[in-house]
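Notebook entry, structure prediction.
Reason for the run: the old model in the group folder had no record of what sequence produced it. Starting over properly, with the input documented here first.
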Amino acid sequence: MRRQRWILRACFLAVICLGVALKGVWARVSADDGTRWDVSLRKVSHVYRPHVRTSAHEDCDFLSGRGAVRVCAPAEGADVAYSLLCAAFPLILTAVVLALACGILTAVSPRPPSNTAVALTGAALAASFGGTLMAIIAMPRSLAGLEGLPLRLGGLAYDASWLGVGCLAIAVILSAASVLRG
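New structure, fully documented this time:
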């Protein structure tokens, strides 16, 4: 029973962390002209005066194509990297849904975790790890506006994604141990 509670906690903490990763800024870079670029799993923002709180900025949602499209245009010859970046958001969103499903299944089940819980947490782990790696690989080379700029990955959303992956790894290990124990 204690193991079930730990699986439940790990799954719900992963949902929270991956939710933060879906919304927050993963990378930012300051350009030579004094502007700043912020990149998330879904949006690119070009802030013209970063030191001013209400600065003018252009935003673009590269998944839906809304906003200032030139801000999130793909880099020359970076079709694969751009496709990877576009695939990262749905993969991490899938991980959130699977982790939530595993948490609910663990919470309502009177029995120890089953093979279904192991499969759900394993799939969530694979999706979150894959989506995180895709974003890390693709962000520096996929967007035309960032060409030649030293993009730095980091921040709360980036760290939250790795924390979510870690929580899911713990949930997989605990679920598998419960199934193997019988």
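Summary: The beta strands are 25-30, 36-40, 43-47, 57-61, 66-67, 152-153.
The old model has been moved to the deprecated folder.
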